[in-house]
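Support request, please re-run this one:
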Amino acid sequence: MIEARSPSRPLIVRLRNFVGDTVLSLPALRLLQSHGYQLELVGKGWARALLEAEGWPIHVRPAPLRQRVAQLRELRQRCRAQDAGFDARLNTLLLPWSFSAALDARLAGLRAMGYGYEGNGLLLSRTLRREPGRHALQDYWTLACEFLGVQLPPPAAIELPVSEAQRAAARELLAGLGLSAGRYVLICPFASGKVEFIDRSWPAFPDFVRRLKAAGVPVLIVPGPTEVEGARELYPDALALPGVALGVYNALLQLAGVVVSNDTGPAHMAAAVGGRVISVLGPTRPEHWAPWGPGVQVMRCWPQWPSADEVLARVEQTLAG
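Re-run finished. Output below.
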């Protein structure tokens, strides 16, 4: 059992490379912090904006291997100066179970713990086995519990904080479009990648948006850098806000009347900030990847997709509730 009570005990945590996974790891990160660990997070650049309201230091991970290892070695030196026992204990938690994450940590001289996968256990100081069929949030939560030597149930809600500054920026953007809080539907239609070679994007999404527009319901879309052209072509009836930082996007999701999404990172963001989410899923397994929170409604009838009429009826019911 690993005891951790001093707030000066640093712990390096490698974040996942995906927005949804990073959101789902938040309860685990807070659990580690509550047991006295000072978190030093390493991840993608967008994690700074996404987790801005949490206040954790986030070190942006470079792409080349040499630079990644140099970054971790420098971070290790700083942590050793802060905690004389840093090198004598498990000092790194890897949320990704990739071989490269384990290799980076090993080359930097870190003592890392993580899930075993495709031989990476040879590079870890402690390896856990992932249980099939478990929700992704529970994967990260269990990893943190095992690191701490505790057994606790995960929280029912993630409760990702939104700062007043982020909320004010979101309201200003909405006002510029003539929208107000709770009076618009925010859509998250883009889902990259496939599940068992099957597209994760709801094919009726464009028709659904046209029906919303015809019903007089304002529709908002917040496309990422690679989604701007697709938003313009596929969803001309939606009001678009490109170039929004993830922290402000959190506020827009929180202020929406309802969020309608595919299996995508912003769906997890919306659920985490307490938004009302209708998650339209196809081949994605909800028991592993559904957004986590009490305000989530999953619509799935695989191997079919829900119809535009079915989702529209659920939206109307949710807005009226």
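Residues 1-6 have pLDDT under 50 and may be disordered. The two ends are 47 Å apart (CA to CA).
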